[in-house]
């Protein structure tokens, strides 16, 4: 039920603004992908092209092997949930779900009802009367219950409060395990969702900066923890770039950038230091900071 995505030399311009600049990548599908990037890096533009909401200026986009633009066979199998959920303001929430049940081939009505209850969706209320959290809850319900082979959440759950966001993450993982599909999440809440991502793409000013498995990406850095002087000696002795540090009494944890060699790992162990993969957010901040050599 999952579908692959292939992007070659994709360009998208809005007048003089270059939103996407020769992007190329392949998603095999059947995974949860994280799409990260600073404000204005092109995430929404990319996702809009994948879901055929916009036509590319140049390059090739294949979703399940076909150009998605004005291609109903593909678009009915792609569900993009945007920040401000696409629903008529005058419609009642219940009618929006009804409409989705008619448009979405894999719609699961029982699951939609269960999600509506879980997220306290007021079915009789008009969309215009929903709070920001209510709009996000509607988006999440539409996105999950659609079970579209390519499901995309573009920051659409950020209006939910923390308990509801965690409920969404749990639902996503549980439903994805039972009904595997290709899922892309764009987010600024990196640490919260990092564990969901099997692969991560980072956009930077319209270009693809990183496309890697999450575990591989995390090994681009390390958190070195132990007795403070030993940590400092290890970091300085190996000429490691420190991204940040935390101290607690005589103990220190320094986040470093750069993959460690086996010899360095052995040296750390011999010095009584613990090594852990680095947090995705720390890496993201480092990689997308202006002035950092790439
Ligand atoms: N409709 C539009 N008209 C003109 N420029 C646009 C339009 N939509 C986006 N842009 C520009 O294209 C670039 C990419 O924007 P996009 O919304 O895709 O980025 P984003 O990564 O989703 O940003 P954010 O994280 O802030 O939502 C930005 O420079 C933005 O100003």
UniProtKB/TrEMBL annotation:
The keyword Nucleotide-binding applies. The keyword ATP-binding applies. PROSITE patterns: ABC_TRANSPORTER_2. Keywords: ATP-binding, Nucleotide-binding. It holds the Pfam family ABC_tran. SMART domains: AAA. One of its GO terms (molecular function) is ATP binding. Residues 5-230 form the ABC transporter domain. SUPFAM superfamilies: P-loop containing nucleoside triphosphate hydrolases. PANTHER family: ABC TRANSPORTER, ATP-BINDING PROTEIN, SKFA PEPTIDE EXPORT ATP-BINDING PROTEIN SKFE. This is ABC-2 type transport system ATP-binding protein.
């Amino acid at each position: 039920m999952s579908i692959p995505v292939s992007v070659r030399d994709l360009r998208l311009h809005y007048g003089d603004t270059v939103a996407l600049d020769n992007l190329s990548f392949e998603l095999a599908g059947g995974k949860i992908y994280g799409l990260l990037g600073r404000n204005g890096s092109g995430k929404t533009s990319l996702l809009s092209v994948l879901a055929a909401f916009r036509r590319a200026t140049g390059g090739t986009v294949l979703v399940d092997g076909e150009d998605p633009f004005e291609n109903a066979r593909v678009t009915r199998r792609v569900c993009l949930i945007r920040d401000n959920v696409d629903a008529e303001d005058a419609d009642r929430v219940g009618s929006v779900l009804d409409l989705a049940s008619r448009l979405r081939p894999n719609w699961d009505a029982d699951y939609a009802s269960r999600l509506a209850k879980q997220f306290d969706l007021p079915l009789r209320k008009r969309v215009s009367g929903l709070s920001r959290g209510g709009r996000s809850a509607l988006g999440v319900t539409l996105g999950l219950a659609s079970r579209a082979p390519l499901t995309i959440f573009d920051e659409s759950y950020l209006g939910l409060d923390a308990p509801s966001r965690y409920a969404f993450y749990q639902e996503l993982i549980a439903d994805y395990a039972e009904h595997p599909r290709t899922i892309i999440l764009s987010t600024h809440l990196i640490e919260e969702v990092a564990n969901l991502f099997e692969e991560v793409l980072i956009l930077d000013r319209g270009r693809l900066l990183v496309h890697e498995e999450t575990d591989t990406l995390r090994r681009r850095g390390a958190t070195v923890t132990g007795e403070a002087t030993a940590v400092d000696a290890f970091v300085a002795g190996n000429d490691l770039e420190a991204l940040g540090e935390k101290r607690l009494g005589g103990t220190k944890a320094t986040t470093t950038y750069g993959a460690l060699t086996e010899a360095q790992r052995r040296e750390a162990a011999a010095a009584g230091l613990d090594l852990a993969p680095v947090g995705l957010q720390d890496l993201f901040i480092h990689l997308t900071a202006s002035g950092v050599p790439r």
